[in-house]
Amino acid sequence: MGSTPHRVGKYQIRVSLALFVAACVVGVSSQVILPARAGAEMWDLARSIAYRGTFADPFMVLATGPTAVNPPLYPLILAGFVKVLQKMSLAYYMAVLGCILVNAVTATLLPRVALVFFGDAIPGIAASILWLATMQTIPGWDTNYTVLGLIVFCLVTAPVLRMERSAGWRACVGGLVAGCLFLLNPSTMLVTFPWIGYLLWRTRARLRSAFIYCGIIVFTTSLFVMGWGARNYVELGGFVTRTNLGFTLYASNNNCAEPSLIKEELSGCYGASHPNENLREAQLLQRIGEIQYDHLRVADTRTWMKANPAKFLQLTGARFVEFWFPATEVIPEGQGGFISIFGISGYAQRWVAQQNRIAYCMWLVTALSLPGVVLMVRRREAVAVYILTVSVIYPLMYYIVVSDMRYRYPVLWLSLLPAGYLVREVWTAIRRGSKKSAAAA
Questions:
Q1: What 3-state class would DSSP assign to 56?
Q2: Exposure winner among 149, 179, 307, 373, fewest CB in 10 A?
């Protein structure tokens, strides 16, 4: 990481504007060609908040009461759209617009992150171009907001490295951002906390001041964690942050399990064991409570793993690959179980084709990022330690549940930047070679 970030240059505003406009055009065009799926669980929670004032009933098949299956912030955002606009259709379009704009801002900020990471914006510009090929509008989940939030968190807290006068208030803002990220997606702590550790490591010459600033971030974030956990203690009877681990594991690891979510939906396996689609499972959850149901399904999954180690290892290996190189899928015509979720056979086919195109672009990003990280390590780019740390610990939970492209997005930007780093080096080498050839001529 450069000690003092260089300016993007006199074209900074133009480049940022061009990236923003390009991302908006791509987002709107994609929506016109194939409208984004609205999703279910987050919207069900939004309806509950908007119409009944309760954070409850996330499942399609049965009203199961107060919940901690999903984190609260994104349903609250959607509920705000519903309350203001009154019609679900208008709220959906507002959610789509929000996701498009958030993706566009992400495109504009990647060069700034590259300045923090490398002292050079060019890898970030290359990363932004790759982002245009891999981004998608996901109004049914927090994904787009989570990606932007993680980038903002790094940018806001980076001045701690230089102990700028603004570092104190930026630490407070960073804590607020990290807290909101936790309420969007608790797994973001596997990205934010390694960054805090990285800040401490990089500022060890002024460790006392760094500890104070990083302590402010952690303390502020913990207030959000405590508040959400306290709510769940009152409503559900236990201090928990989320209660979906057990039944996600249970639906992902069983005798009929497949590596990817789409394959499990195609076979009907996921719906047969998940309370969002299976009435029997939802009734059991309602009867014994979410926390107890979650513990029960964790225990059941452990029992299955011990009894079926070969299949569990096969599923885990496939999901490891599919996290980094997302699976491409084919839906047979008239596949009833999967089509019923989408409503229209033609839409499902087009949606999967779109997902496959994005998957191939993610393959390219991963393929570029691997030698990019190697080059960063060889050149002793300090931020490579952070990128490698997150790349190791964040995906661990996703290697043991059904693979889905959505799970990759919170750390995709940490692949885009090394990929951009490699692209810059290749481009620089080509230019040097051209100049030498011209000079020789």
A1: strand
A2: 307
**393 token code pair:** 């610990």
214 contacts 257 by C-beta, under 8 angstroms: no
Neighbours of 432 (CB within 10 A): 10
**What is the token pair recorded at 348?**
């499902």
**Helix (H, G, I), strand (E, B), or coil: what is residue 66?**
strand
Neighbouring residues of 189: CB distance < 8 A, sequence distance ≥ 6: 178, 181, 182, 221
Contact (CB, 8 A) for 269 and 257: yes
Q: pTM to 2 decimals?
A: 0.93
Asked if 142 and 184 count as a contact pair (C-beta separation under 8 A), the reply is yes
**In this predicted model, what pLDDT tens digit does every residue of 313-354 receive, in sequence order?**
999 999 999 999 999 988 776 554 455 555 556 788 888 999
The amino acid occupying position 409 is: Y
Q: Which amino acid is at 346?
A: G
Residue 207 has pLDDT above 80, yes or no: no
d(CA 423, CA 110): 15
Quick check: helix, strand or coil at residue 403?
A: strand
Q: Say which residues have a Cβ less than 8 Å from residue 28's Cβ, sequence separation at least 6.
A: 100
Q: What angle do CA 12, 15, 21 make, to 5 degrees?
A: 135
Amino acid (1-letter code) at residue 318: A
What is the three-state SS of 202-266?
Answer: HCHHHHHHHHHHHHHHHHHHHHHHHHHHHHHHHHHCCCCCCCCHHHHHHHHCCCCCCCEHHHHHH
Residue 51, pLDDT above cutoff 90: yes
With vertex at residue 377, the alpha carbon angle to CA 371 and CA 382, rounded to the nearest 5 degrees, is 130
Is-contact 421 368, C-beta < 8 A? no
Q: Which two tokens stand for residue 303?
A: 């029992």
Max intra-chain CA distance, the chain? 82
Q: Residue 155 is which amino acid?
A: L
Residue 396 pLDDT > 50, yes or no? Answer: yes
